[in-house]
Amino acid sequence: MKPAGMKMIGREYEKSVLRECLSSPRPEFLAVYGRRRVGKTFLIKEFFRESFAFYATGVSGLNTRQQLRVFHEALLNYGEQNRTIPKDWLEAFSRLEKLLSSPNVRREYQSGKRVVFLDELPWMDTARSDFKSALDFFWNSWGSSQADLILIVCGSATSWIMNHIVRDTGGFYNRITRQIRLMPFCLEECEQLLSANGMRLTKRQVIECYMILGGIPYYLNYLTPQYSLSQNIDKLFFQENGPLRYEYAQLYSSLFKKPGNHLAIIEALASKRSGLTRTELQAVKDAPDGKELTKCLDELEQCGFIRKYTDFTRKNSGFIFQLIDPLTLFHLTWLKHQKISSWTDLLNTPAYYTWCGLAFERVCQLHTRQIKNALGILGVSSFEFAWKSRKQHPGAQIDLLIDRKDGVINLCEIKYAAEEYAIDAACEKDLLYKAEAFRTETGTRKALLLTMITLNGLRKNEYRNIIAHEITGDDLFRPIP
Question: Could you give the CA distance from residue 293 to residue 296 in angstroms, rounded to a whole number?
Answer without folding.
Answer: 5
